Structure formats: C-alpha cells, structure tokens
C-alpha cells in the first residue's frame, strides 16, 4: 500500500521528551482531519505519518485548544475511529490501527523513519521500496519522513533511491524506525544553484537558470570554452579555429540579441568579471558550480551589464577532514578533423591553361605542354617544381600534455583547497631542421589556485582566494592561421620552397628561398620559417571575503563583504629576418648543374631583427568591491528573504597607444532582491539593479533595471500529492518579466560618446600661409572625428520568460523555457544624414532595436538497473531567433526587400543564382549583368527581382539561413557495469548558412591554389553542367561570379560525435588494499566524426575554412584520489 505523507517544512526536530512538553494552540471549525494535522505541523514540532486511506478525510471536526497537549489534540482528531497514535523520535507522530483492529494486520511489520542528505537536510520524494518485492513501497514526505507496512518475513532489505543521490540498501533486523543518510551522486552537485550574488535551492528558483555538472565539461582540451557547444540549453556556441591560443569558441546566451558592440555574455568567476580567455583557461577540476542565467529575474541584479545573459562560476572550497589528494594526467594526440584537398600539380597547370583559353581563345597559356609533361615525370623539383605545400609545412598530428593536482582538507576552524595545473599544446607546423629556432606553435599554460576558509568566530567566516594563470607562447610570426592561409594561396609549380646552394652560393648562411623573377609572390615556406613570435601573459587574482552572521540583531540577518584585485600583464616580441629569394637562371641538362639568380640581393637580411619599440606591452589592473546584506526567515508557512548589494569596480589599462583606452573604466551600482514563498507552493521574486557607468553623460549615467517573477509548485498541492506524486514527483511553473541593460556600447577607444572627439593636429586640414626662404609655411588644422551626443544611453532589454520544471518517476528531470526579448537603444551611426546638413562627421545615436524569441529545454534521465548496471541520459535543445526592428538604413521605397527590418541579425543579402548560362544565346536573352563586368556561357546567371531588365544591387534579397545557428542541440548517454563505464555525446546545429568566399578560394587568381573539388566539378566546354560546383574558370577573379549569391550559400547544419569515452575504475577491494579512494583510467576522443552534406572542410569552421583547422583529439588519461 502506498504511503501518503501530509506535512510541510518544519524544524529538524527535537528529542522525544521535548515533544511531550510542547503545547498546541489551535482553533478549527468544520475542518477535515488532514487540514487540522497540516496546520498543527506548521507550528514546527510534530510530523504526522500514516498510511493512505487510514484517515476518513470526509469527517469534519471542530476544536479550540489553547496551550493544549498532543494527547488532547489526538483525542479529538481520532474520536470515533479505530486508530491510535505513537510519538516517535524527532517529533514523528505515527497514526496506526488500535488494538481492536490489529487482527486485520496480523503478519505485518511496521517501519518508520527519516531520510536526510549528508548535511542533515530532510529529503522529500525518496522512493522507499522492499527489495525483490514489487508493489511494496512508498515515498518520503516533504520533511523526509516515511511509514511502511512490510510482510513479516525473516529478512527484509529496504532500498532508498532518489534522482541525484546514490542508492542505499539497508537490511532490517528488529528495527522499527530508521534514520537514513543519502550521499549526493556526482551529477547532483548542481542542485545547489549559483544565482546572482548567492545560491538558491533549485526548488526555490524563479528565474531561468541552467546548471552544468562540471564533470560534463571535462573534455580532452585545454580550452574550457570548446566544451560548451551543445551542452547547455539556451547557449549557442561554435568553434571556428583549432589553433592553440586562438581556439576560443564563440558563445551567446539565447543567441545574438543585439547588433551593437557587445554580444557575448557577462562572465563571473567567484563573483568577479573575467574575459572569455580567462574562462578558457579555467581548470575544470577547480569548478564547484557552473550556472547560466538567462532571463531578467536571474540577471537583473547585474543591471547595466546583464542584458546578454550571465555565466556564473564558483570554484571549489575546502572541506573538513584529512587531506584528500587528486591527480589527473592526460596525453593527447591532435590532428585536423579534415584537411582541404588540393589538386595535383599537373591538373593545376592544365586547368590554369583552360582558365586562360576559356576566357580568351587567343590568349597565351600559362604553362607549356613540355612543362606539364616534365612536371609529371621529372624528379628534378628545382627545374620542374611540384610542391605539396600542405604536406611540407604541416604534420599529420601532434602530441599535447595536461596535468592537474589538488589537495583539500581542514578542520572545524579552517579548511583549504589548493590546486595546480599545467598544459602544453603544440601546433602541427612541420618546422625544418635548417632553421636555428623552432617556431612551431607551443603554448604552455600554468595555473595555481588557493582557496582558504577560516572561522574567525562562531559567526564570522573569512574566505581568501588566490589564483594565477601564466602562459608562454612560441609560434610563427603571423600565427598558425596565416600559414594555412598562405598554403591555400600558393602556386605549387611556380618555384620550389628553397634551393640547395650552388657553387656560387656555397658559403651563404641564409636559406635560398624560391620565388618568381617577375615579381615576388607568396612563398609559404619562407613566411613560416622567417621568424617567430613569443608572448607571455600573467593573470593574478587576489580576493578576500568576510561573511558575518548577525543573528544577535535579528535571526536570519547576515552581511557579506568582498574585495578583489586582479592584474593582467601581456608582453610580446616578434623577431624575423627578411628572406633572400632566388630563381634558376641557367641549367645544364647534361650535368644537372644549375645557376641561381638572386632576386632581391639588397632587401634580405641574415639576422633576426629586434623591434625598436621593445615589443607589445599591456598591463591592466582592476579593483572590485562588493557588500551584500542578506536576510532569510521562515514564519510558519511563509518564507521571506532579501538581499541588498553594493558594488564598485575600477579598471585601468596601461595602453600607451590610446588616450581613451588608458582612462579608467568604472562601474558603480546598488542591486536588490526580495523573495517570498508560501507553503512551498507559491513563490514570488522581485529584483532591481541601479547602476552607473563612466561611459555616459552625468544626466544619463545611472539607470534603473527592475524585474519580477512568480512560480507555482503544483506538485506540492494536496490534490497532486494524493494522486500524481508517484508519477510526476515535481511540477513547477515559472513566469518572469523585467529590464536589463548593456553599457558596453563601444570599445575602449570609442566609449565616451557624450564627448566630441577632436583631432587637434590634422594634416588633412593643413593650410598654407605663404613662403619663406627655404620652404613653405604650413599649419595643420583641427577636425571633428565624432560629434558629442550627451543623450546616449545603454541598451535596454525587455525580457519575458515562461518556464516549466518537471520530474518524472524520480528518474527524469525536464526543464522548458519560452522567452521573448525586445532590445532598444542600440547605438548606431547616423549614416544616412544628407550631406547638405553640413556635418564634418556622422553623429551616433541610440536608434536601433531588435527582438529575439525562442525555446530552450533539457531532459536528464538517471536509472540504476539492478546491482551492477546504471544508465544516464541527457539532451538539450535551443531555438533562438532574432529580428531587426529598427535600424539606420535608406528608405528602400523602390526595393523594400532590401530592408533589414523583420530579418535575422545575422541574415545575409545577395542575388538569387538560377544556374549557369548555357551558351551565348542564353546570355543574350537574359537580363543584363554588365554591371559585374564580362560574363558568358558557364558564368552564374542571376534573377532579375525587380523586373527592370538589369541585374543591379536592387536585385539583392535575403539568402539562406542566418550565419549564427538558430538551432543548437546536444544529447548523450552514459552507462556503467560494475567498474566499467562508457559515455558518448553528440552536438548538432541547424538553421544556419555560410557563404563560400569565391574570391579567396578562386583558383589561379593571385597564384591561388586549386581545390580538388573545384577541379573535379567545374563548368567547361567538355562538361557543360549548368549546376557544376564551380563556374567557368578564370585566371583572375571573375567579378560576375564573385557576387554574394545563393550559388555560394551552404547549409550549416551538422551532427557531430563530440565526445566518446571509455573508462575503468578499480573496485573498492583493490582500492582499500592500495589505500586509494578512487583510481580510474580512461580513453576518450573529441570531434570524432560529423554528419553533414558539406565536404570541403570542417563545417563548424563555416566560411573560415582556409584557416587553422578544428582538431580531432584522441586522449589517454588517469585520475587518482587518495
């Protein structure tokens, strides 16, 4: 028989003798028995436990007690019934049949008890079941209590299960009551949700907040941002590059909601604002909580900084106990997910000749047949070069290493958490041994962290946090992406990478790089090895926090004061020589000897130069202060809490190149939050932020950003708990609305829009004042670079959110949110003011507006299958659509389709490409495209949208999906059998498009390489395919074919196996012998394969396909805890 538990939150309990002395005061008129018991329980001293159906809830009673006893109450409640009561430990009152009715329950044994977590908090909704006996079980009430009747068997084992906690089995002997503690399972650590300036229980959260289990962020990468894609509902993320040190993912909370300067979210670690790079360098093993704040109620306390959403991270703190050590070691092999395939040298030359002749039949071929034939068979790569630049400059893979160690422990007075980490990420550049320095990418990252908690008094806690991240980088002078780009824009047959010295240059110390005597062009090899760049970064953060309880003033009052200072330093130096270039001026076919000609004898150098300015240097110092007063109190069924926050920040950058950038950036504000709950069923929350920024005029420097939210926990209603609680154990509905700001409307050089920007010494405004002997008198003039606008303010986001939280069968959690945002005051340049207005420069104003709307949701599933098996599943989905509402643009009266209003913020405009022209007749009968230059058969034919007979800019329309994906999703599955575990995670994106850059990928133009895909599928006289991948070839960029059009649009949707992991953990018996707490070895991989229709390069790189490729990583690791 199922158990119905009727109670609400009370105190944790007193000893039984204290309960016997407690008095009860209550007035009730014609109330049901359950209602009376409910009201008594709200007084905080008793919990009533009874079997479902035991009470006649239709019977109404009246009573008037003043300082009455429990027996006096129960005499009235149980009058005319065959029930009695028994007072157990901790104030549990068990209702049971009296001795008269015991004959109906012969052969039964009764057990009652409490279930708490490891910290002593009662756990409602825990499933209590008799092992190997279906149909016998119950769930704990809101205070963790349960009562169960069991068959009178000689042996009984109770199984306690709840999502987020480890399952526990207890073998019963002669007990009649139990006190059970459940430990938190690893995936349940996020149940304590980090919110703005504090923490809340997940059940009390009104706003839209998503928490991530830090374990899910442990991917084989040194860059934390690469783990975010597809992991979090409401987060749009993608990675465009795999270059170490430049591989940060781009991410936006609920998509891009502004076309202003700052689009990415506010990121805070331990309450302090940090950069995306700081997040990228954070060690996953240091993270305790990771939360994403998505709506106004969640972010309003950040006022003018929270409009783009907030990422909150709390690092680990120490805990009482003996020192506990943790070590993680990893070694990875990294290689490109996909290399761009290039045509072979012979095909390159044949099609280069075709490109000339197809445009001009009388033109001169670029390569003779003799050169083509000889290149195909010759082994003399100096005379007939055939350079595979990619193979020469890049390795197939590289090896990387990571190590993390931490220790935590302490006693009741002080606790500590100390960690250190190291990672080394190498590039795939194939540096030759002839260089006297190694300029392959090598990025070393060192991190340290020390968090210490000290109880100064019983009510005073001091927390100190010290962290540092240090990076040392060595790499090619222009970066790895530039080397890749050079390869894609290099002719494979024009010259070799370098020559071995002939007799005339036998004593030369420098490398004899190849090049063209007709004008220097790109030599990727020379560009790669000619120099190197070193940079060092240091980020040190020191924080002190005091938490003081003020219960002596009034219970529930506390204050929290925190001060933080951080310093970031960057120093970079580049050293390079100027290459000497050569070509063959003579060749003896009989002897094989060649004569070299020095192309630039006066321009090269044999030494590494040193920058006269000493390199790039930047130092930024930030000071942040925060004070919070908190209050929380429960009055019977009513719970109230409030927070008042004061915050001030000052950041100074030592940028010597810019006056504005060197000026302090300051923020000041007061924020507040108030919450109210009734009976753990109804919740309300109001928030506000009143913030000021130095970016605005004194009359608009401060702004007020309020929000409000309500929630209804339906599953705590009586009607729900009686019938549906076993199926839907939790159901909460949420609704919020509010305003949030964004003060980042310009970069450090252009932030003071309320001031005019005047150039006092402008040579373009110089005037001549006559002649003097030996020269002309000229004085530079004054010009206005930007007009002041004192009315400029921050962007304001009006956000609405409707949410649902649901738990099914204590195994599955479902969260769903529907949202809409209206963003106003987006800063824009007034670009379309008539020139007759007489402005020397165009002013700026808050005139833009945009909307965004969408859905995000997640599902988590957790199930143990018998003793040895367990399974976990998770999935999330995000739909984020944006739209221009107001924008500075022409009227477009004759071509309204050119207006951006109503379209996505990342929508592209271009021409509709119908097909390729069939022949000259087709060209003659089509609308004129002469505005784009020469065109003919095999070139792209565009649609005349306005029907005027000419293809012009008025024929451009929205093409493809937005460039930022509107749909992002992820799903994964984890399973385990005894000591083995396996997990996989898939990431996907949809509703996005990107455009192939037909200029940068155009073969032969500026000696560009030829993509194999273009060689295999292009229009020609022999292949008059009007839907070929590449149009008619050309030795130069064809302006007709280079127009942005649907011809070059590619669908950006994909599904990727983001991560696969297999692990083995030593069993407990072995751990005990080795004196270890845990030991696990594992192998995992990331970016293993993708399902997509796009084949040229990794689709996640989108239009950046000629840059440093995204990496596939295979990793081996071990972790130990002792």
Automatic annotation (TrEMBL):
Question: Pfam families from the xrefs?
Answer: CarbopepD_reg_2 (PF13715), Plug (PF07715), STN (PF07660)
Q: Does the keyword Membrane apply?
A: yes
What residue ranges are annotated as transmembrane? none
State any GO CC term: cell outer membrane
Tell me the keywords, alphabetical order. Answer: Cell outer membrane, Membrane, Transmembrane, Transmembrane beta strand, Transport
The answer to whether the entry has keyword Membrane is yes
Out of the domains of life, which is the source? Answer: Bacteria
Which InterPro entries does this chain map to? CarboxyPept-like_regulatory (IPR008969), Plug_dom (IPR012910), Plug_dom_sf (IPR037066), Secretin/TonB_short_N (IPR011662), TonB-dep_OMP_SusC/RagA (IPR023996), TonB-dep_OMP_SusC/RagA_CS (IPR023997), TonB-dep_rcpt-like (IPR039426)
Boundaries of every Secretin/TonB short N-terminal domain copy: 46-98
Name this polypeptide is given: SusC/RagA family TonB-linked outer membrane protein
């Amino acid at each position: 028989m199922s158990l119905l538990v009727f109670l609400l939150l009370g105190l944790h309990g007193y000893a039984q003798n204290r309960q016997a002395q407690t008095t009860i005061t209550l007035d009730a008129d014609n109330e049901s028995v359950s209602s009376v018991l409910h009201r008594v329980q709200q007084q905080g001293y008793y919990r009533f436990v009874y079997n479902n159906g035991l009470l006649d809830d239709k019977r109404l009673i009246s009573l008037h007690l003043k300082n009455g006893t429990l027996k006096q109450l129960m005499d009235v409640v149980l009058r005319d019934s065959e029930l009695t009561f028994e007072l157990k430990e901790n104030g549990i009152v068990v209702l049971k049949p009296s001795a008269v009715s015991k004959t109906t329950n012969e052969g039964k044994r009764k057990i009652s008890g409490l279930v708490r977590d490891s910290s002593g908090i009662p756990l409602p909704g825990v499933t209590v079941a008799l092992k190997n006996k279906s149909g016998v079980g119950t769930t704990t009430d809101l205070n963790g209590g349960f009562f169960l009747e069991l068959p009178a068997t000689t042996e009984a084992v109770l199984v306690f299960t709840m999502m987020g906690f480890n399952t526990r089995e207890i073998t019963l002997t002669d007990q009649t009551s139990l006190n059970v503690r459940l430990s938190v399972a690893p995936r349940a650590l996020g149940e304590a949700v980090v919110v703005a300036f504090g923490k809340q229980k997940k059940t009390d959260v009104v706003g839209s907040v998503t928490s991530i289990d830090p374990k899910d962020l442990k991917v084989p990468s040194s860059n934390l941002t690469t783990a975010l894609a597809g992991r979090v509902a409401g987060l749009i993320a993608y990675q465009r590059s795999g270059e170490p040190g430049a591989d940060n993912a781009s991410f936006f909370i609920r998509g891009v909601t502004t076309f202003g300067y700052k689009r990415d979210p506010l990121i805070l670690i331990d309450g302090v604002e940090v950069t995306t790079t700081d997040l990228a360098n954070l060690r996953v093993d240091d993270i305790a909580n990771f939360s994403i704040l998505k709506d106004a109620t969640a972010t309003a306390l950040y006022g003018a900084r929270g409009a783009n959403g907030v990422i909150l991270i709390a690092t680990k703190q120490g805990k009482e106990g003996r020192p506990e050590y943790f070590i993680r070691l990893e070694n990875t092999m990294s290689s490109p997910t996909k290399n761009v395939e290039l045509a072979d040298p012979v095909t390159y030359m044949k099609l280069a000749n075709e490109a000339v002749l197809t445009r001009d039949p009388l033109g001169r071929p670029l390569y003779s047949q003799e050169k083509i034939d000889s290149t195909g068979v010759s082994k003399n790569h100096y005379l007939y070069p055939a350079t595979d630049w990619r193979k020469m400059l890049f390795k197939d893979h590289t090896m990387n290493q990571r190590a993390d160690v931490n220790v935590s422990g302490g006693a009741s007075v002080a606790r500590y958490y100390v960690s250190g980490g190291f990672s080394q990420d190498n590039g795939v550049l194939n540096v030759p041994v002839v260089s006297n320095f190694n300029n392959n990418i090598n990025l070393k990252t060192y991190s340290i962290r020390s968090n210490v908690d000290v109880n100064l008094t019983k009510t005073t806690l001091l927390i100190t946090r010290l962290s540092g991240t240090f990076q040392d980088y060595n790499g090619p002078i222009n970066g790895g992406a530039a080397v890749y780009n050079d390869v894609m824009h290099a002719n494979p047959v024009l010259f070799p990478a370098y020559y071995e010295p002939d007799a005339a240059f036998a004593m030369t110390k420098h490398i004899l790089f190849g090049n063209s005597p007709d004008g220097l062009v790109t030599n990727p090899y020379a560009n790669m090895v000619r120099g190197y760049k070193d940079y060092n970064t240091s980020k040190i953060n020191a924080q002190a926090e005091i938490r003081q309880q003020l219960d002596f003033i009034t219970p529930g009052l506390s204050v929290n004061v925190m001060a933080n200072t951080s310093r970031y330093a960057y120093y970079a130096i580049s050293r390079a020589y100027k290459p000497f270039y050569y070509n063959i001026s003579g060749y003896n076919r009989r002897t094989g000897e060649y004569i070299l000609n020095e192309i630039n004898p006066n321009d090269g150098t044999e030494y590494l130069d040193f920058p006269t300015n000493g390199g790039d240097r930047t130092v930024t110092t930030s000071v942040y202060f925060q004070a919070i007063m908190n209050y929380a109190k429960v009055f019977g069924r009513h719970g109230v809490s409030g927070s008042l926050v004061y915050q001030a920040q000052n950041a100074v950058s030592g940028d010597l190149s810019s006056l504005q950038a060197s000026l302090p950036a300051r923020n000041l504000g007061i924020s507040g939050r108030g919450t109210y709950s009734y009976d753990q069923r109804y919740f309300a929350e109001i928030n506000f932020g009143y913030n000021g920024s130095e970016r605005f005029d004194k009359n608009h420097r401060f702004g007020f950003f309020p929000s409000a939210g309500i929630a209804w926990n339906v599953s705590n209603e009586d009607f729900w708990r009686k019938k549906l609680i076993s199926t839907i154990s939790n159901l909460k509905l949420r609704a919020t609305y509010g305003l949030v700001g964004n003060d980042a409307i310009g970069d450090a050089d252009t932030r003071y829009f309320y001031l005019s920007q005047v150039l006092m010494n402008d040579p373009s405004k110089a005037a001549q004042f006559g002649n003097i002997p030996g020269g002309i008198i000229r004085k530079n003039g004054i010009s206005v670079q930007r007009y002041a606008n004192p009315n400029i303010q921050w962007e304001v986001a009006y956000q609405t959110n409707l949410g649902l939280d649901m738990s099914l069968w204590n195994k599955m959690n479902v969260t769903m949110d529907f949202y809409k945002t209206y963003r106003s005051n987006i800063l824009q340049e007034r670009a379309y003011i008539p020139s007759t207005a007489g402005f020397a420069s165009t002013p700026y104003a808050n005139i833009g507006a945009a909307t965004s709307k969408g859905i995000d949701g997640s599902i988590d599933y957790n199930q143990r299958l018998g003793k040895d098996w367990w399974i976990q599943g998770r999935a999330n989905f995000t739909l984020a659509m944006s739209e221009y509402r107001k924008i500075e643009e022409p009227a477009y009266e004759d071509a309204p389709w050119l207006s951006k209003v109503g379209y996505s913020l990342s929508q592209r405009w271009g021409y509709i490409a119908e097909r390729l022209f069939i022949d000259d007749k087709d060209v003659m009968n089509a609308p004129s495209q002469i505005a784009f230059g020469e065109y003919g058969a095999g070139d792209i034919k565009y649609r005349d949208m306005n029907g005027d007979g000419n293809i012009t800019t008025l024929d451009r329309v929205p093409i493809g999906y937005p460039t930022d994906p509107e749909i992002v999703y992820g799903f994964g599955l984890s399973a385990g059998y005894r000591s083995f575990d396996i997990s996989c995670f898939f990431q996907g994106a949809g509703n996005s498009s990107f455009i192939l850059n037909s200029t940068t990928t155009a073969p032969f133009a500026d000696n560009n390489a030829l993509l194999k895909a273009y060689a295999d599928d292009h229009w020609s006289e022999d292949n008059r395919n009007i839907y070929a991948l590449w149009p008619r070839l050309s030795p130069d960029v064809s302006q007709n074919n280079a127009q942005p059009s649907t011809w070059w649009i590619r669908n950006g949707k994909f599904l990727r196996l983001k991560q696969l992991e297999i692990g083995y953990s030593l069993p407990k018996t072995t751990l005990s012998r080795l004196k270890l707490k845990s030991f696990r070895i594992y192998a995992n991989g990331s970016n293993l394969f993708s399902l997509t229709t796009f084949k040229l390069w990794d689709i996640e790189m989108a239009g950046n396909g000629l840059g440093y490729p995204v990496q596939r990583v295979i990793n081996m690791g071990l972790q130990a805890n002792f």
